[in-house]
Amino acid sequence: MAPETSLLYIHGFNSSPASHKAGLLREMFERAGCAERLITPALPPSPRQAMAELDAAIASAGPVALLGSSLGGFYATWLAEHHDLKAVLINPAVRPWLLLDKYTGIQHNYHTGEAWEFDPAWLNELKRYEVEAISQPENLLLLTQTGDETLNWEDGWDYHGDCHRYCGLGGSHGFDNFDAFIPLILRFCGVKI
């Protein structure tokens, strides 16, 4: 019997596995008795190091699908393209090196409060993970909301034009009513719990 597909949740910039979305997923997987099939790594701020950790998580996970939020959606796009995986992207960053330059210097993680310094060299690291043209749009599902106060939802909508897409009116960068979309996310990813 083939192993069940796991879900790798990729948090966004300055976030963590303690995010609201990760918490809702954790509760659902725990209730279903399969908590070990939800992978929620705490990623380092360096894009190169984060991607190395994500590559290692994919290599050791067995069958896996991706769920990325914001910067995590940017990472998930590259990983899905290079590993031929299904991925759901929630309000994803499209060209994060154009957005994150204002965060150089000392930052504090939104959930842990841990201080860290944003290295401007990371902007060039991010450019290395750009997917100029998505070759397998059927592997991606974009979930976005027009009320995203952090990213321009239209950038993601246009960039993922050939992918499966949903756009909700209003909402926020955190993606309001995320819990109502979990069944769709799991179904698209082929994750059975």
Automatic annotation (TrEMBL):
SUPFAM superfamilies: alpha/beta-Hydrolases. It comes from Alcanivorax nanhaiticus. This is Esterase. It holds the Pfam family UPF0227.
